[in-house]
Design a protein that fits this description.
- It is a single chain.
- This protein has two domains: about 60 residues; about 130 residues, Immunoglobulin-like (Sandwich), CATH 2.60.40.
- Strand 5 and strand 6 form a beta hairpin.
- The strands form two sheets. Strands 2, 4, 5, 6, 8, 10 and 11 form a seven-stranded mixed β-sheet that branches.
- By secondary structure, the protein is of the alpha+beta class.
- The protein is built from one helix and eleven strands; from the N terminus they run H-E-E-E-E-E-E-E-E-E-E-E.
């Protein structure tokens, strides 16, 4: 008498079918996630381009030489955000704009409202970091827009910080054209 074991064969076929279904579902899931997040990245890039275009147009139409697209930033701990600074050269020759923190002698221009002993820091410090290019050359007749990245560390103290960004201009190639403008950025950090 022979005994056939059909259960073993059907179990292996079931296992193969389940494995194929699992791989298919994983592939579909990954494709879906890629479509969602890939589209979001593309939308953010387009939005950044629109902000830059709008800032260029505003600076070209206005009498301003320096401007920010917004002066208030709201962040949660561990988050970062981006604002844009626009610089216009309506002079003869290239202009070198210098961006820096006013003050000196160890005094930071970025402090927490209500507690001036809490300062903003450099990247990696315990509170808020404001990161930007410090020297920007703008060709004659051009308007440029650059990002300023604002980060709140995961251990940043909750509160409102005020950051003063000084924009100065030295000499152009053909004349001495000087401005000294302070732009104030308010940064709200929440838990």
């Amino acid at each position: 008498m022979r005994i056939f074991k059909k259960a073993d064969l059907s179990l292996s076929i079931n296992a193969i079918v389940v494995l194929i279904l699992a791989i298919t579902m994983l592939g579909l899931g990954l494709a879906f996630m890629n479509q969602i997040f890939g589209g979001a990245t593309e939308k953010f890039a387009k939005m950044g381009g629109q902000v830059e275009k709008q800032m260029r147009e505003q600076l070209m139409q206005s009498g301003k030489i320096v401007d920010l697209n917004r002066f208030d930033v709201k962040l949660k701990r561990g988050e970062k955000d981006k604002i844009y600074i626009g610089l216009k050269n309506d002079q003869v020759g290239d202009i070198e704009f210098l961006l820096y923190e006013p003050g000196g002698g160890g005094r930071s221009s970025c402090t927490k409202i209500g507690d001036p002993s809490v300062l903003c820091g450099e990247e990696g410090d315990e509170n808020v970091a404001v990161l930007y290019l410090t020297e920007i050359t703008v060709p004659e007749g051009e308007t440029v827009v650059y990002p300023i990245v604002i980060k709140a560390s995961s251990s940043a103290e909750e509160g409102t910080y005020v950051y003063d960004l000084n924009v100065g201009v030295g000499q152009t190639q053909s004349s001495t054209f000087e401005i000294d403008k302070i732009l104030t950025i308010t940064i709200d950090v929440t838990l």
